[in-house]
Design goal:
Order of helices and strands of chain A: HHHHHHHHHHHH
Structural class of chain B: alpha/beta
CATH topology of one domain in chain A: MetI-like fold
Helix content of chain B: 40-55%
Number of strands of chain B: 12
Radius of gyration of chain A: 23 Å
CATH superfamily of the largest domain in chain B: Periplasmic binding protein-like II
CATH topology of the largest domain in chain B: D-Maltodextrin-Binding Protein, domain 2
Number of strands of chain A: 0
CATH architecture of one domain in chain A: Orthogonal Bundle
CATH class of the largest domain in chain B: Alpha Beta
Largest interface: A-B, 37 and 39 residues
Number of helices of chain A: 12
Helix content of chain A: over 70%
Strand content of chain B: 15-25%
CATH architecture of the largest domain in chain B: 3-Layer(aba) Sandwich
Shape of chain B: globular
Distance between the termini of chain B: 45 Å
Number of helices of chain B: 19
Structural class of chain A: mainly alpha
Largest sheet of chain A: none
Radius of gyration of chain B: 21 Å
Number of domains of chain B: 3
CATH class of one domain in chain A: Mainly Alpha
Oligomer: heterodimer
């Protein structure tokens, strides 16, 4: 099997990376999750299920994550699809390039700074003030779930736009003409031709956004004022405030398991829906 | 530099300001005022390492940098500039929101700090965990133990060994915008919590810190600020959960929303109270009559500090009475050093925010080590936040 060697050698960096950066830390998390908190915090070796028994204490955080993550994903999809459609189908090439650049450029600035900007936009001197001038008094945005949702849509929009854009870009325009020739209304054409053919893009975009949202910490911390609490925020607190590494590990392990379950159900549904495994290659 | 908040700013001016800020020659507050950028800048400064001054200074045999972990709005940046000029070591500042976070960083290892600023009740824990070194006092000649008021300096000594030297002391009260109370002044923690649920609904902030947020909720019932009694903590939790939907935010960085009018009241430390009151006289700093916290901060050196010598040099520099007095003028926290106080203007030494009336001070308690490390209190705050 001499010829296998170069292949193995090439795979070595990735294997080492995965082992050191993924498998090993996960093993540590798992081991810690059965331990106990030390008197001044940290971790003391033990074998107890106490940390897992205490999981209901973070029920609200799990609930918030599991409602706002799908909601955020869906909202981002609703905003992203028309944009991607316009870019891929309607826009003329020059405008298209400019628009694509405009979508990418914000990525050059840290998400942290861009999210901070939203504190001012959504704060009392921002949009609510404009609304008050228009007669809508007393609207509160900052430090509410709505603010968090807005921040999520803003932050994750490009991740949703691009996969959908790619799948719509590949769309064979002749199919649209054929549909029209066969007497379909534009709406029906969209429903029967465009939408199904862009499903792989939608599936990929939703997956990317959803997975990242499940671990989201920054947007709720900044735009939720410490009141909208995701599981990510709970983890940060457990490690950086309460210094309860054992319990933090149990929560983290549970999050990983919940995500694996949710994502595999999602994959199953998507696979059945599109039945086109190869088009999921973007994943 | 004058503080004209709403001037438009050119790109070039912005970069100049950012550079000045990074060097520490303007305060964060001034910088934010000038650029109108808000908190984002604190992050940006560290994200743009190219903006650090590269110039190498002649003096430096203590290295080119010293890393300081400290609290928000707690130093006079011109002092750092002076330190850099004198020694060639650039001061890099990490700002924290709670002692727990500092402890977590040190416990996890690799903090990279050379000096940090722990509060009185944490020091025995740091010593017990072997995280800080006994201070080599010969390297801090400006520290003169007899000049310091013992009650603000004795927590630095554990079992006869000096592990930390005093920085500032202060109180934890609350600041309230009296424009919204019809000019009425509040005087108790009971009022703080009650008004938060009523007229001030959606306008109150509490610290993202178990010690003060739980401690001041305990005060509502007249319990000790340091209580770890399960029944008393349960009462405090009930109050906190009840108030939570009415809060503006749970955040220790309360100055920005208080200044722009989004929040009307917040738990508050002495210096922030002084800074806010100076700029907005309607901001009233109140110590609850029931009591609350009095504290003292210290300088300490973590074990294995990478720029240990520079760390000691910085402590020594900041304890120079003239430098220390300048610090007080900038941040508004009192010092326990009689030599520095001798250099301060009389009106500051008589300021009721810095030096509250004796009967108010008498009701205050120093935080206890057990209060910080109690797992039930930590868990209570987490439940409150995730509720």
């Amino acid at each position: 099997m001499r010829s296998k060697w170069p292949e193995r050698l090439l795979l070595l960096p990735a294997t080492v990376w995965l082992l050191v950066m993924l498998v090993l830390p996960l093993a540590v998390v798992l081991v810690f999750s059965f331990g106990e908190r030390g008197p001044a915090g940290g971790y003391v070796p033990a074998f107890t299920l106490a940390q897992y028994a205490n999981l209901p204490a973070r029920f609200t955080a799990f609930k918030n994550t599991l409602t706002l993550a799908p909601l955020g994903t869906f909202a981002a999809l609703i905003v992203a699809y028309p944009l991607a459609y316009f870019l891929a189908v309607k826009a003329n090439p020059r405008v298209k390039t400019i628009l694509l650049v405009m979508i990418i450029v914000p990525f050059w600035t840290s998400i942290l700074i861009r999210t901070y900007a939203w504190i001012f936009i959504l704060g009392g001197q921002g949009i609510p003030k404009l609304l008050a001038m228009g007669g809508l008094e007393g609207i509160r945005l900052i430090n509410t779930p709505t603010a968090v949702l807005i921040g999520i849509i803003y932050g994750y929009l490009p991740l949703m736009v691009f996969p959908i854009y790619v799948s719509l870009e590949k769309l064979d325009k002749r199919l649209l003409e054929a549909s029209e020739d066969l007497g379909s209304s534009p709406l029906r054409t969209f429903r029967n031709v465009t939408l199904p053919l862009s499903m792989p893009g939608i599936a990929t975009g939703c997956m990317l956004v959803f997975i990242l949202l499940m671990g989201e910490f920054l947007v709720p911390a900044l735009l939720g004022g410490g009141k909208v609490f995701f599981i990510g925020n709970a983890l940060v607190d457990l490690f950086l405030q309460s210094r309860n590494w054992a319990y933090g590990s149990a929560v983290a392990a549970t999050l990983v398991i919940v995500m694996l379950v949710v994502v595999s159900i999602y994959m199953k549904l998507v696979m059945r829906g599109t039945n086109q495994r190869k088009d999921m290659s973007l994943l | 530099m004058s503080k004209k908040d709403n001037l438009p700013i050119t790109r070039k001016k912005f970069m100049q300001e950012l550079w000045r800020y990074k060097r520490g020659s303007v305060s964060r507050r001034q910088f934010l005022g000038v650029t109108g950028l808000g908190l984002a800048t604190a992050v940006m400064g560290t994200a743009v390492p190219g903006l650090l001054p590269r110039k190498s200074w002649a003096a430096g045999d203590i290295g080119d940098r010293v890393v300081l972990a400290t609290w928000p709005n707690y130093h006079d940046p011109t002092n750092f500039e002076q330190f850099t000029e004198a020694t060639g070591a650039n001061v890099q500042m990490n700002v924290f929101g709670s002692n727990e976070e500092m402890l977590a960083k040190l416990q996890a290892g690799g903090s990279g700090w050379d000096v940090f600023v722990p509060t009185n009740y944490t020091i025995t824990t740091y010593v017990g965990e072997g995280l800080i070194e006994p201070l080599e006092l010969s390297m801090i000649p400006n520290y003169e133990a007899s000049a310091f008021e013992p009650r603000f300096s004795d927590a630095g000594t554990v079992d006869g060994t000096v592990y930390a030297v005093p920085k500032n002391w202060g109180t934890t009260g609350f600041v309230v915008n009296t424009k919204h109370t019809g000019g009425k002044t509040l005087t108790t923690w009971k009022e703080f919590w009650d008004i938060s649920k009523a007229e001030f609904s959606g306008r109150t902030m509490v610290h993202d810190y178990q010690l003060t947020t739980i401690g001041n909720a305990l005060k509502y019932f007249g319990y000790s600020f340091n209580s770890v009694d399960p029944a008393e903590l349960a009462d405090a939790e009930k109050l906190l959960i009840e108030v939570k939907p009415h809060l503006y935010a749970i955040n220790s960085d309360y100055q920005p929303p208080l200044r722009n009018g989004d929040a009307w009241m917040s738990m508050c430390w002495t210096g922030d109270g002084k800074q806010l009151n100076t700029d907005m006289p309607e901001m009233d700093y109140v110590l609850g009559r029931e009591g609350g916290e009095i504290w003292s901060d210290y300088y300490a050196v973590p074990k294995g500090a990478a720029h240990r010598e520079a760390g000691y040099a910085l402590i020594n520099f900041l304890l120079d009475p003239a430098v220390n007095a300048k610090e007080v003028l900038a941040h508004g926290y009192p010092v326990a050093d009689s030599r520095a106080n001798a250099l301060l203007p009389k009106e500051l030494l008589e300021d009721p925010i810095l030096y509250p009336a004796q009967e108010l001070l008498d009701a205050l308690e120093f935080g206890a080590a057990a209060t910080l490390t109690d797992p039930n209190r930590a868990e209570l705050l987490a439940r409150f936040k995730s509720a």
